[in-house]
Active regulator of SIRT1
Amino acid sequence: RGLELLEAPGRRKAPPGLQQGRDGPRAAGAARRRKAAPEPRRNKATVKGRVVKSAIEEYHKKKAVNHLRANLQYMLKGRFVANKTITEQVLAQNRGRKSKDQPPKKAAKKKPEGTVFTEEDFRKFEREYFGRP
């Protein structure tokens, strides 16, 4: 009250709704920010004594390995050979039903056209037809 008396006559306090200062709406956010100011702390994401992994080593670990050579040696080493009909049955079971999955039709092997008659038959026919001995 004493300060109000000593205050200059032109200056008055603003109404309580328009006051700004520590009690304003921004003050609480600023106090929170000040309270949670980043202090030098230990990074929780790291572990003490952790070894950094090489990206190249990780890539080589997860890279697919080609077992073709070892599998071929294993298959060729065996002495048991499956029956041809059994092999065909297994392949037919694993084949799809679409036309693109079907193997090409094998053309039937044509036998070379030969005659039913022998050379002796031709000579005999010659003698009978032309009258030669």
